């Protein structure tokens, strides 16, 4: 079990690297095509890769009609809803802003909802962490509005990132119930296909505005990276990590995303923060980390999901898609930060 957990942490760290790279890669994509088209290319391509993987692996138990409907609803919320906002946000704000706001505020919003609904305890350390996280977010937004080069456009983009974090929190809280008992690969594939179809319908009016012949090889290499790395591979690895070490523990790893996201944005896009924004980002991450870690110390209400290979012996309860983010169980497991 210890070896299995160690391997899970390694794969989860790779997931955070891939998700961190998604922010500057998405910014690059929306500089060449409308944001709706960029979102569809990423998740449409990811859906194709996942379908191929699903056909090769072939889950042992076919999904029921209830499972399929649940996975489709999860995809509409987590793939379509969140990413429609995410790609819209990167058209107005730096990718580095999104790489901080999303992973830092998602667990804060999720934990607030869980405490308000009395599904988790309001420990003093958690409350203090939430206050610090929210204070950091307020300072970050104030610094953005005062930034000479940002303007109202950047503030609007950051606000969209904030709304996207709330949507991902909703997805996190709903996902366990929607896809409980499904094979992880199957759940991720169905939800991604459903979300991609919705993104395709949204993008359809913009297809005619794209000069497809003018898109160079760099754009298509970037599109392939987004579809395979931060989407298909990262989502599968995150779901596997949730199964091996639990959603609450896996969610803590998301605090590595701002590090990789800002690093990649600095290298690829030459983006930067003001000192005030750096301080605010540190407060957001520290506050959210304190809230999540203090909650993780509480014994889980329900046992971790069993391995699919043990399904014949014990009923399955693994979460579905996390991502592009990923799945999140309810109750104690729903403390996860939640796509990219």
Percent of residues in helices:
over 70%
Sheet bearing the most strands, described?
none
The number of E-state strands comes to 0
Please compute the radius of gyration using only Cα atoms: 19 Å
* Poorly predicted runs of 5 or more residues: 298-340
Order of helices and strands: HHHHHHHHHHH
User: Beta fraction of the residues?
Assistant: under 5%
Derived structural class: mainly alpha
User: How many DSSP H or I helices?
Assistant: 11
Distance between the termini: 28 Å
- Shape field: globular
Q: Return the average pLDDT rounded to an integer.
A: 77
Quick structural overview:
The protein has 340 residues and is mostly helical. 72% of the residues lie in helices and 0% in strands.
Describe the structure in your own words.
With 340 residues, this protein is mainly alpha-helical. 72% of the residues lie in helices and 0% in strands. The chain is built from 11 helices and no strands. It has helices spanning 2-30, 35-57, 65-89, 95-116, 124-146, 151-179, 184-207, 217-245, 247-252, 257-269, 275-296. α4 (95-116) packs across α6 and α5 packs antiparallel against α11 (275-296). The longest helix is centred in the N-terminal third of the chain and has 29 residues, at 2-30. It starts with a helix and ends in a 44-residue tail after the last helix. The model is unreliable at 298-340 (pLDDT under 50).
How does the SSE layout of this entry go?
Blueprint: H1 2-30, H2 35-57, H3 65-89, H4 95-116, H5 124-146, H6 151-179, H7 184-207, H8 217-245, H9 247-252, H10 257-269, H11 275-296
Helix pairs in contact: 1-4, 1-8, 1-10, 2-3, 2-7, 2-8, 3-6, 3-7, 4-5, 4-6, 4-10, 4-11, 5-6, 5-11
